[in-house]
C-alpha cells in the first residue's frame, strides 16, 4: 500500500458551511500589558454534515479557534463565515459543549438541559419536556434529572453539557473535549452515541480532543494544530468507512498508519513547545 | 475568605454556612458558661451585695422585668413600631442594593467610576449622621427608615457587586451561546449566580439596619424599643433597660437566623467549598 497521508484537498470551491479565512486572535494580557497571539493565519472550510476533529497540544489555541466560530471571541484578523454570513455573535445555528462544562449551578440537570432550549425556540406546547428527557437519556443520565451539578462527577457534568448542546438540534455542534473527563468505558459508549446521533441527524461537528484515537475514530477529517503561535499544521482526510467500532478499527492498516503519523506530528509539536519555553 | 477590592483592602464576607459538626457539644458548653456567669452575678449582687442592685440588678430581677415587659401593651406597640421601620427600610435597601450592586458589578464603566465612592461611603461612620437625619426628617418614622436604609444598603450593594464581579465568564459564555442576552442575561445568569452573595450582604445589612433603627429612636424618637430603652435608662430602671437590651439581642439574632434559613431555601445549590460557577 502506498502512503496516502496527504493534505486533504482544498474544499473552498465547494459551498462550505463553515469557512474560516486568515483567522488570527490575540488577547490583551492585562497583567503585562502585552498582546498574546493565540492563533494566526488559520484557514479552514467545513462542509455541511462533516465531522471535523481538532487535535493539538495544550494551549495551542483550539478553544480560542472554536470560540471565534461560536461567536464568543472577536477575531483580530480575518473572518469566519457560517452559511455564507460573517459571524458577529452566537446564534441558534451553533451550540457549544464547553471544556469546563459551564453548567448553571443553581439549576438541576433537567433545568440545565432545558436551558439549551428555552431561549431558542421557546417552550411552546409540552413537547419540550420529552425532548429534554430524550437528551438526558441519550447521555445516560436518567435518574439524575433532579440532581444539582455539584452532586455529579466531572464526567457526568460533561454529559449534561453535551445534552444541553444537542437538545435544540443545532445545525453545527462545537465540542470542546466533550469526553475529556469521562472514564474509558463511558467514553466508548458516548463516542458511539455521538457518532450515531451525528449520522442520524447529519449535523456538522467540530470536535476538539487530546486523544489521537478519538480524533481518528470520529473524524472525517483531522485538523492538527501547532503552537506558538497557534496555527494549522496539517489537515488529514481519514478515509475510514463508517460505522467504525473501536475494536474492529484497531487492526485496520489505515488506522494504524494515521495513528503513527499523528503521533509523530504531535510529538514534534510537544518537543518544539518544550524547547521554546 | 477576603477579596481585595479595586480600591484597596476592604473585606467582603463570603456567604458562609453555619458549622454543623460538633455544634451540640459546644452548645452545652455555652449553656454551662452562661449559667455559671449568671450564678456568680446573682451571688455578687443579691447575696454578697458587692454591687448596689440599683446600678446592676441581679438576673432574677431582670427576668422579672422581662416578663413584666411582655405583658405590657406599650411594649408591643413599641415592638411593632420598630419592626415596621426596620422592615420598610430593609426592603428599600434590598431592592436598591441588589439593583445597584448588580449594575456596578456588571458594568466595568460603573465599576471604575462609582465603586470607589461606594467604598468611601461604606467606610464613613454613618452613625455620626444620625442626629442630622433626625434634624432634617424629624422625630417620626421617616428619619428611622432613612437610617435603617443608609446603614443596610452598603453591605448589600458591595456584597452583590463582588458577587457579580466573580461570576464565572464561562457561565456568561454559556448564556450567550444559548441565546440569553441583555436583561435576560442579568436575570437568568448574573442574578442567580450572585444571589448567595446578596443574601449574605442582606444578613449584615439587617443587623446594621436594626442598630440604625434603635439608634434613631434613642437619639430622638416618639416610639419604638429604642425610645422605651432611653426612657427606662433616664428613669434609672436598670432591670427594665437590660431586659429591653435582651429583647433587642433576640430580635437581631432572629433576623439573622431568618435570613440564613432563607439563604438555604433560596440557594440550596450553593456549596461553600466552591465559588459559584467555578465548577
Ligand atoms: N481570555 C484569555 N486571555 C488571555 N489569554 C488567553 C485567554 N484565553 C486563552 N488565552 C491564551 O491563548 C492561548 C490558547 O489558549 P486556548 O485555551 O485556546 O488553548 P487550547 O488549545 O484550548 O488548550 P487546552 O488543550 O489546554 O484546552 C494560551 O496561551 C492561553 O494562555
Ligand atoms: Mg481548550
From TrEMBL, chain A:
Keywords: ATP-binding, Nucleotide-binding, Transport. It comes from the Bacteria. This is ATP-binding cassette domain-containing protein. It comes from Agromyces luteolus. GO terms for molecular function: ATP binding; ATP hydrolysis activity. The keyword Transport applies. Pfam families: ABC_tran. Residues 20-252 form the ABC transporter domain. The keyword Ion transport does not apply. InterPro entries: AAA+_ATPase (IPR003593), ABC_transporter-like_ATP-bd (IPR003439), ABC_transporter-like_CS (IPR017871), ABC_transporter_ATP-bind (IPR050166), P-loop_NTPase (IPR027417).
Automatic annotation (TrEMBL), chain B:
It is a multi-pass membrane protein. It is found in: Cell membrane. Residues 79-257 form the ABC transmembrane type-1 domain. The chain crosses the membrane at residues 26-48, 86-106, 118-139, 145-165, 177-195, 236-259. Keywords: Cell membrane, Membrane, Transmembrane, Transmembrane helix, Transport. InterPro entries: MetI-like, MetI-like_sf. Coiled coil: none annotated. One of its GO terms (biological process) is transmembrane transport. GO terms for cellular component: plasma membrane. Belongs to the binding-protein-dependent transport system permease family. This is ABC transporter permease subunit.
Amino acid at each position: 500500500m502506498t502512503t496516502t497521508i496527504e493534505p486533504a484537498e482544498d474544499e473552498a470551491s465547494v459551498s462550505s458551511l463553515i469557512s474560516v479565512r486568515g483567522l488570527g486572535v490575540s488577547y490583551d494580557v492585562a497583567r503585562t500589558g502585552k498582546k498574546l497571539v493565540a492563533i494566526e493565519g488559520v484557514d479552514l472550510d467545513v462542509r455541511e454534515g462533516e465531522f471535523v476533529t481538532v487535535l493539538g497540544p495544550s494551549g495551542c489555541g483550539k478553544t480560542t479557534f472554536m470560540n471565534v466560530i461560536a461567536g464568543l471571541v472577536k477575531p483580530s484578523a480575518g473572518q469566519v463565515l457560517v452559511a455564507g454570513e460573517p459571524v458577529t455573535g452566537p446564534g441558534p445555528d451553533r451550540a457549544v459543549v464547553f471544556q469546563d462544562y459551564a453548567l448553571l449551578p443553581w439549576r438541576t440537570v433537567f433545568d440545565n438541559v432545558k436551558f439549551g432550549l428555552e431561549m431558542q425556540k421557546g417552550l411552546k406546547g409540552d413537547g419540550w419536556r420529552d425532548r429534554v428527557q430524550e437528551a438526558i437519556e441519550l447521555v445516560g443520565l436518567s435518574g439524575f434529572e433532579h440532581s444539582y451539578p455539584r452532586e455529579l462527577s466531572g464526567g457526568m457534568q460533561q454529559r449534561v453539557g453535551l445534552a444541553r448542546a444537542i437538545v435544540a438540534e443545532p445545525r453545527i455542534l462545537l465540542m470542546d473535549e466533550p469526553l475529556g473527563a469521562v472514564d474509558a468505558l463511558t467514553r466508548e459508549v458516548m463516542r458511539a452515541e455521538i457518532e450515531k446521533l451525528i449520522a442520524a441527524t447529519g449535523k456538522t461537528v467540530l470536535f476538539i480532543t487530546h486523544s489521537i484515537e478519538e480524533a481518528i475514530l470520529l473524524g472525517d477529517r483531522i485538523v492538527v494544530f501547532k503552537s506558538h503561535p497557534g496555527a494549522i499544521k496539517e489537515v488529514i482526510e481519514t478515509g475510514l468507512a463508517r460505522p467504525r467500532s473501536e475494536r474492529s478499527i484497531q487492526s485496520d492498516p489505515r488506522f494504524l498508519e494515521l495513528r503513527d503519523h499523528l503521533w509523530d506530528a504531535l510529538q514534534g509539536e510537544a518537543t518544539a513547545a518544550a524547547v521554546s519555553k | 475568605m477576603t477579596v481585595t477590592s479595586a480600591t484597596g483592602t476592604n473585606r467582603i464576607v463570603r456567604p458562609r454556612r453555619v458549622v454543623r459538626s460538633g455544634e451540640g457539644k459546644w452548645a452545652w458548653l455555652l449553656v454551662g458558661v452562661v449559667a455559671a456567669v449568671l450564678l456568680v452575678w446573682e451571688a455578687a449582687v443579691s447575696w454578697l451585695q458587692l454591687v448596689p442592685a440599683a446600678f446592676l440588678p441581679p438576673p432574677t430581677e431582670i427576668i422579672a422585668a422581662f416578663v413584666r415587659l411582655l405583658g405590657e401593651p406599650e411594649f408591643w406597640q413599641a415592638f411593632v413600631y420598630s419592626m415596621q421601620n426596620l422592615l420598610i427600610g430593609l426592603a428599600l435597601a434590598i431592592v436598591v442594593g441588589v439593583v445597584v450592586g448588580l449594575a456596578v458589578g456588571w458594568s466595568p464603566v460603573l465599576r471604575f467610576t462609582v465603586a470607589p465612592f461606594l467604598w468611601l461611603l461604606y467606610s464613613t461612620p454613618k452613625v455620626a449622621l444620625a442626629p442630622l437625619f433626625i434634624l432634617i426628617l424629624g422625630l417620626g418614622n421617616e428619619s428611622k427608615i432613612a437610617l435603617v436604609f443608609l446603614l443596610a444598603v452598603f453591605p448589600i450593594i458591595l456584597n452583590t457587586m463582588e458577587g457579580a464581579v466573580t461570576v464565572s465568564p464561562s457561565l456568561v459564555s454559556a448564556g450567550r451561546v444559548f441565546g440569553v442576552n441583555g436583561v435576560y442575561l442579568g436575570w437568568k445568569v448574573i442574578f442567580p449566580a450572585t444571589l448567595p452573595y446578596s443574601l449574605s450582604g442582606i444578613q449584615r445589612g439587617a443587623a446594621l439596619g436594626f442598630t440604625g433603627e434603635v439608634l434613631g429612636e434613642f437619639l430622638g424618637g416618639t416610639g419604638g424599643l429604642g425610645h422605651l430603652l432611653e426612657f427606662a435608662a433616664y428613669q434609672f430602671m436598670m432591670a427594665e433597660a437590660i431586659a429591653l437590651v435582651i429583647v433587642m439581642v433576640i430580635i437581631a439574632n432572629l433576623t439573622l437566623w431568618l435570613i440564613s434559613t432563607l439563604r438555604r431555601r433560596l440557594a440550596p445549590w450553593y456549596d461553600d467549598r466552591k465559588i459559584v460557577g467555578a465548577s
